[in-house]
């Protein structure tokens, strides 16, 4: 059986208390979606957002966590703290964190292990740069990021993988269907050596997913949903993506 599909919204460093109205609109428009719906807002919005979705069909997640359980790490957030305010997921190793904060595969794996220990599902992001794609290194890069970023103990229940080509994020450009399908097939195969129930691991595509291209992406083999940035900020747009995933 195919795993339950996942529509995940990554708000990045966008949104404030007024933006909670978008969540109300999303819940009103999609009270019982067939796919799992997840919003990862800035951490400061998790708690107030939880109150809006409590008992509803929307799950919440953080955008990063520290590898340690607690301690002297000014400005960081522990996985258990995310969990404590209502998160059940955390995005890890997003290319913006890899680039802005120098996160290596080993750091991402350590954070994912911490997320698992706290009972969170880790959404581990991988993706090639445009230069790497031009040099035809995409599959090697993805394989090595998967090998390095997935910790021991990863299962289909506690781990989701997002393929996000760096050059497709926020640019309006997307890979061809064949390029997405090629990477997703490689990921499924690669996971078989690392995660026992690899066929059940959700594999998301991310990078300029919009209402207009969602259906075509969701029709591809081994695409179990999307990680959506810009188009997750507006309930109307994200709602159309959820509907496309439900119809896939
Ligand atoms: P985008 O971002 O949908 O705005 O391209 C995706 C992401 O970075 O998760």
UniProtKB/TrEMBL annotation:
Q: Where is the active site?
A: 94, 164
Q: Which UniProt keywords apply?
A: Cytoplasm, Gluconeogenesis, Glycolysis, Isomerase
Entry's Pfam families? Answer: TIM (PF00121)
Q: What class of enzyme is it?
A: isomerase
Q: In which pathway does it act?
A: Carbohydrate biosynthesis; gluconeogenesis; Carbohydrate metabolism; erythritol degradation; Carbohydrate degradation; glycolysis; D-glyceraldehyde 3-phosphate from glycerone phosphate: step 1/1
- Give EC number(s), comma-separated: 5.3.1.1
Which terms in the Gene Ontology molecular function aspect does this entry carry? Answer: triose-phosphate isomerase activity
Role: Involved in the gluconeogenesis. Catalyzes stereospecifically the conversion of dihydroxyacetone phosphate (DHAP) to D-glyceraldehyde-3-phosphate (G3P).
Complex and partners:
Homodimer.
Q: Which family does it belong to?
A: Belongs to the triosephosphate isomerase family.
Protein's name in the database = Triosephosphate isomerase
Gene source species? Paracoccus benzoatiresistens
Q: What is the lineage of its organism?
A: Bacteria, Pseudomonadati, Pseudomonadota, Alphaproteobacteria, Rhodobacterales
Instruction: State which gene encodes it.
Output: tpiA
């Amino acid at each position: 059986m195919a795993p339950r599909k996942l529509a995940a919204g990554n708000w990045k460093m966008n949104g404030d208390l007024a933006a909670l109205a978008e969540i109300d609109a999303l819940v009103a428009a999609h009270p019982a979606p067939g796919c799992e719906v997840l919003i990862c807002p800035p951490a400061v919005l998790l708690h107030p957002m939880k109150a809006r979705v409590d008992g509803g069909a929307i799950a919440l997640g953080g955008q990063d966590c520290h590898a340690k359980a607690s301690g002297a790490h000014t400005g960081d957030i522990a996985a258990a703290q995310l969990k404590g305010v209502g998160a059940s997921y955390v995005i890890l190793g997003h290319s913006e964190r890899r680039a802005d904060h120098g996160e290596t595969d080993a750091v991402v794996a350590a954070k994912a292990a911490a997320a698992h220990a706290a009972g969170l599902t880790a959404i581990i992001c991988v993706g090639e740069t445009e230069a790497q794609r031009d040099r035809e290194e995409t599959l090697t890069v993805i394989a090595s990021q998967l090998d390095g970023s997935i910790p021991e103990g990863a299962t289909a229940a506690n781990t989701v993988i997002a393929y996000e080509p760096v050059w497709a994020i926020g640019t309006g450009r997307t890979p061809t269907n064949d390029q997405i399908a090629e990477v997703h097939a490689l990921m499924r195969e690669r996971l078989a050596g690392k995660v026992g129930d690899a066929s059940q691991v959700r594999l998301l595509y991310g990078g300029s997913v919009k209402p207009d291209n969602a259906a075509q992406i969701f029709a591809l083999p081994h695409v179990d949903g999307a990680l959506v940035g810009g188009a997750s900020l507006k309930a109307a747009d994200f709602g159309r993506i959820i509907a496309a995933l439900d119809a896939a």
